[in-house]
């Protein structure tokens, strides 16, 4: 990455500077993708021409109802400035961990249908986890 850093191209031609910026940007994006398990999974599915945006996954109503209830509970906790929901945080992080393991297995076995479903579910869990992290910051936990 350092070989393409734009600072090394300050005395080069405009074409070389632009090439350096473009390549450096691509490397940074690739690095971010590799760091995030969800982004990696999206990328691996994209390599197989599968995207959640183009063909959304129909998740079971019970799962969606559960997610809606959790989001409502979180909204109430936030609005009433209640204490941090530690049990919910533990449960969600366990769900994420379990789903990540299943996703890894599905991808390794090239079970792309299962991987696509797990990734869709993980996106919901990840959104809840983001809200939990915001609450942890607000409550001084992290």
From TrEMBL:
GO terms for biological process: [2Fe-2S] cluster assembly; protein complex oligomerization. One of its GO terms (cellular component) is mitochondrion. Keywords: Chaperone. The keyword Chaperone applies. The keyword Plastid does not apply. GO terms for molecular function: ATPase activator activity; protein-folding chaperone binding. Residues 1-24 are annotated as: Disordered. InterPro entries: HscB (IPR004640), HscB_C_sf (IPR036386), HscB_oligo_C (IPR009073), J_dom_sf (IPR036869). Residues 60-132 form the Co-chaperone HscB C-terminal oligomerisation domain. Coiled coil: none annotated. It comes from the Eukaryota. Belongs to the HscB family. This is Co-chaperone HscB C-terminal oligomerisation domain-containing protein. It comes from Adineta ricciae (Rotifer).
